Amino acid sequence: MDPITTRLARRSRYCAGAALATLALAMPAFGQAPVQGPPASAASAAPQGGAQQSTPAALPDPAATLPTPQSQAAEAPAQTPADIVVTGTRITTSGFSAPTPTQVLSAAAIAKNAQPNVFTTIAQLPSLQGSSGATVGTNSTSSGTQGLSSFSLRGLGTIRTLTLLDGQRVVGANVTGVPDVSLFPQLLIQRVDVVTGGASASYGSDAVGGVVNFVTNKRFEGFKANALGGVTKYGDDGNYTFQAAAGKSFLNDRLHVVVSGEYSHEDGVPAYGFGEGPGPNGRSWYDTETLVNRGVLNDGSPQYLYREHVQANQYTKYGLIAAGPLQGIAFDKNGRPFNFNYGSNGVPLKDAKGNVSNCYNGFCVGGDLSGNVGNGTSLQSELTRWDGYGRVGFDLDPDNEIYATVNIARVRSSNTPNPGAAKQGNLTIQCSNPFVPAEIQAACAANGITSFAYGVSNAVLPNFTSVQPTRTQYRFVGGADGKFNLFGSDWRYDAYYEHGENITNIHVRDITLTPHYNAAIQAVLGPNGQIICANPAAVASGCQPLNIIGGDTPSAATLAYVTPINGPYQHTRQTQDAASLSFNGAPVSLWAGPLSVAIGAEFRREYYRVNADPYGNGVTASNPYTAAYPADPLVNSAGNNWYAGNYHDGHGSYKVYEGFLELNLPLLDSHSLGKANLNLAGRATHYSTSGTVYTWKIGGGWQTPIDGVKLRAVTSRDVRAPNLSELFAAPIAVTVPNINDPFNNRSISIIQNSIGNTALKPEIARNTEAGIVLSRPAWAPGLSLSFDYYRIKLKGVISALGAQQEINLCSQGVTQTCSAFDLSGSGPYIVNVQSFNLASIYTDGFDIEASYQFPLEKMGLPGNFTVRALATNVRHFITDTGIPGTVPIDSAGANSGATPKWKLLGVESWDTDKFSITFTQRWFSDGTFGNQYIVCQTNCPASTESRPTIDYNKMPGAFYFDIGGSYNLTKKLTAYFKIDNLFDHDPAGSPQTNTGIDVNPQLYDVLGRMYRAGIRYNF
Q1: Which of 144, 212, 668, 695 is the right S-S partner for 676, CB 3.0 to 4.6 Å?
Q2: What family is reported (predicted)?
Q3: Per residue in 370-410, pLDDT tens?
Q4: Is residue 230 part of a domain?
C-alpha cells in the first residue's frame, strides 16, 4: 500500500484528497444518506466540528461526482468512502444528519469556475445576496471597505454572516468585524460549506444569516500549482494568479507539513473621467440615469421623475457662474466664456438661488453633459494579494494530534471614488480675481456686483483621487484534536487557541485640502504684478494660487499645496484572541440509536486602535503622525479639513465568554417507518459590554419510508452582538446649524458628535426553516431535488440616527435617544449621534435545488452529463426603522439593492477522462428601483417621505452565460479556459437622486465579457 493508503487504514481518517475524489459517493448531491465509513473519520476530517452533509451540494459540480484524473492525481487515490462532515452543527458522530440546510462547494467546483479570487465563485450562490467585493464600494473614500471581500447571506449584510476558516474564527479586516476572504489560503481549500440558516447556538454571534466555513486540506501530500491569466473584452482588468502548495510526511508518517504561497493581481477598471461619453475603454451603457426630485409633493404629478442624460445645473467641467446676474456663463478648457446649454430648454433665472426654468430642482435633462462625474468612479478596484500559509501537525499516537498553523497575507487595493472635487455652486469668486477673464470683469461692473457664485467639477486637477487601503493579516493557531475513551465510550476533543492581527493602512492620494483649496482660488495681483493668494497668512504659509476658470494644468507647486502628498491617512490595528475546547461523543445507546453529545466552552477578545492624520482627526498631543503634517494657520486644529477621507482616532475592546451544549436524540429507526432524529442546541454567551444572552436551536429530520424522501425542519434563536465600530466608533465633531429644538420651541446650532454607543444590546433573530428532499430514488438514481422555506425575524437591529431624528424621537417618547444630548442651558449644545437598537427586519422565501446526472455511454459518447440548478426566491424583505410615523419598506424585488425576487444559478457539464466542458447560467428577475414608490402619471396622491410618488419604477434583471472547459495534456498537467458573460450583457441603470455612477455591482456584471485561461499541475 502507498503511504497515504497506509495512513488512512492505520488511523481510520478520511484524507482530504480522497474526499474530493469520492465526494458524491460519500455525500450525495441532495441529501441522500451518506455511505458510512469508520466512525473516527468524521471527526478527523473536520475536528473543529460539523455534521454529515444532509443537503444538496450547492454549486453544480459534476467533477465532485465523477472526478477527473487530474483531480485524483492532485490529491490522493480514491479509498473506501467515509463520512464527509460540514459545519451545520457541532455534532460529529457518524450517521448524524443535521436539519439545517447546508450547501457545499468542492475544490473541483472552485477550480472549474476559474476565478482569481475564490470569493467570486462562492458569492454566485443564490442564497448569498449583498456580498461585497472588488466592484462594490468603489465610489467610497472614507468607508475603509474598498476591495474588502466579505459574504452576505439572505441579504442581511456582511456583519450578519459568520465566516470561518477550518471552523475557527478569523480576525476582522475592518472594525465592523468582517474578515477579508482575499486573505485566506485558497489553493488548499478542500471545500466550502455554506449553512443557510441561523447557527448562533452552534457557532456564536454573527451567524444570523448563516455560516460560510472554509475547510483546508490539512494532510495534502505532493505538489500542485496553478497559473491563471485573464482580460476583459475591453482590454482592461488584466489579471494573473500564481499559486503553489506542497505537503509531505516525516518521522514514519507522524509529522505532517503543508505549505502554500499565492500571488494574484487584478488591474481593475479605472475611472474614465468626466461626462457621459463612451465610458471606460468603450463601454457605452453609462447614460446618467437619475431620479429627479421635483420637490413638489401635492400637485397631482409625481414627485420623482425617472430621466436619462441628466446634468446637474450648478457646476460644469471647467466652471459655471451658478447664480446672480451672470448666471449661465460657463468656461471652456481655455477659460473662454460661453453660454451654457442647460438642456430641458432651461433658462437661468439669474436669481440669488440659481434657479433654472424648465429644469428640476438642480437638474436638467440633456444639454451639455461634459461635467458629469459618474464616469469618474472605478468600476472595479485594483487588487493585489499575497498569501503565505503553513501547517505542521504531529501525531502523538494514531488517534491524537497537535498542530500549529501560520497564515500571513496582504491585500492592497486602489480605487477612484470620483474624478475631481466637485463644488456645486457653493464657491464665491471675486470679480477682481486676476484669473477672471476681462469680459467677465466688465460684466461684473456693468451689473454692479463684486463677486459671483461659482460651481466646477474641478477637471483642472490632473490626477484623480485614489484611495489605497493595504490590509496585512497575521494569524496563528495552535491546537490539539483526537479521541479518548471514557466509561467505555469513545469521545473526541478539539482544543485550539488563535491569535490574529490585522493591520490596515489607508492612504488617500491627490485629494484637496479644503482650507488650502479655498485660499488658493482667491487670487490677487501682488506688488510685483505676480498673481498670489489673497490671504496674507496663506501666502506666509506657502499658498500657491489656483486657477479654476478653464482647464490650464496647475503648476507642480500649486498641486503640492492644494493636494499635498501627505493626504488623509489612517492606521488601524485590530486583534482577536480566541480559545475553544469542545468534546463530542455518544455516551448512551437508546431505542433508535446512540444519543450524541457536543459540549464546549469558548473565549474571545476583540480589540482595535485607530490613529489618523491630524488634518482629518484634529491635532492631539498623542497623535504619532503630527510631525508629518506641518502646523498651518489655515488648517482647523479640530480636524475635518479634507474634501473627503477625514479619519479619526479611536479604540475599544470587549470580551466574550461562552458555553454550549448540543444533543442529537434519535427518535425512530424502523424499516417500515423510516429514521427520525431530534437536534437540540443551546448556548449561553456573556459579553463584557452588554451582559448575557442565550441562543438555542430545535430541529429534526425524518427519512421517510418513501424511497429517497426526507423531511427536515429547524427553528432557532440567534444573535448578532454589536461590533467594535458600533460600540467604540471614533468621535467626529462638526457644527450643524438650524436644528429644531422642540423642547424649547427654537432653532439652534449644535455640535454633532458622531460616536459609538456602548449601551447597545445584541440583535435578536428568530430563524425558521422547513423543507423536503428527494435524493436519488431507485426509480431515478441520478435525480436529486430539494425545497426549503426560510423565515427570519430580526429585532433590535442596530441602526444609526441623525441628530434631528434623535431629538425628535426623544420628544415623542422614545427614551433610548434622550441620553444622547442635553439642550438645557445656554450651550454649547452637543448631540451625540449614535446607533440604537430600534429597527427590525423580516424576510422569508425559499430555496430550490435540483440535479440530474446520467452516463452518456448509451448514446455512444464517453463520460457523464450533469444538469444542476439552484434558485432562491425572496418573498419579503421588510425593514422597519422603528421611527414613529415611518412606514416599513419591503425591498424584495428592488434591484437597486441586494434582494431580487428570484436569483438562479444553473450548470450543465460534460465530463470525461480527457476533457470537460461546462456551461453556467446566472440570472435574476426583473424588479423595481424601490418598492416604496407609488407609480403614477396624473392624479397622484400626496407624496410622503415613506411613500413618495414616481412616474416610472421598473428595473430589468439580467441573464449571464458562461462557458468553461479543461483538457488533460498529461496525467499531471491540465489546461483550462473560462469565458464569463459570453454575450457581454450590459448592466441596467440603477438611478439615484444624483448624477453619480448609476449601476448596482452587487447584482450586475459591470465588467463585461471576461476571458481567462490557465494551467494546473498536480503531482
Answers
A1: 668
A2: Belongs to the TonB-dependent receptor family.
A3: 998 888 899 999 999 999 999 999 999 999 999 999 999 99
A4: yes
Q: Assign residue 147 a region: left if phi > 0, alpha if psi is -120 to 50, beta otherwise?
A: left
β-pair partners for 650: 610
As a whole number of angstroms, the longest Cα–Cα distance in the chain is 105
Residue 964: strand, helix, or coil: strand
Identify the pLDDT of residue 93: 60
Q: What is the pLDDT of residue 985?
A: 96
Helix (H) or strand (E) holding 913: none
DSSP bridge pairs for 967:
915, 975
Instruction: Name 207's Cβ contacts closer than 8 Å, sequence gap at least 6.
Output: 161, 162, 195, 198, 199, 200, 718
185 secondary structure, DSSP code: -
Is the separation of the CB atoms in 852 and 894 below 8 Å? Answer: no
User: How many CB atoms are located within 10 Å of the residue 5 CB?
Assistant: 14
Q: CB of 169 within 8 A of CB of 604? A: yes
Strands 222-232 and 1010-1018: antiparallel
pLDDT in tens, 210-232: 999 999 999 999 999 999 999 99
Q: Could you tell me what percent of the chain has a pLDDT over 90?
A: 73
Phi/psi region, residue 237 (left: phi>0; alpha: psi -120 to 50; beta: rest), is left
Domain that holds residue 22: 3-269+392-412
Nearest to 139 by CA among 372, 416, 423: 416
Q: Output the domain CATH number for residue 229.
A: 2.170.130.10
Of residues 621 and 447, the one with the higher pLDDT is 447
Cβ-based neighbours of 488, under 8 Å, separated by 6 or more = none
Positions of E strands within 742-863 = 746-754, 763-775, 783-800, 830-833, 835-855
- CA 722/CA 606 separation, integer angstroms: 12
Per residue in 674-714, pLDDT (tens digit) is 999 999 999 999 999 999 999 999 999 999 999 999 999 99
Per the domain annotation, does 207 fall within a domain? yes
Structural domains counted in the chain: 1
| Rounded Cα gap, residues 455 and 671, in angstroms | 80
pLDDT at 497: 98
In a domain, 921, yes or no: no
Distance spanning both ends of the chain, measured CA to CA: 18
Would residue 582 count as lying in a domain?
A: no
Mean predicted confidence (pLDDT) in 337-354 = 94
List 975's β-bridge partners, or say none: 967, 1015
Cell 446634468 belongs to residue: 311
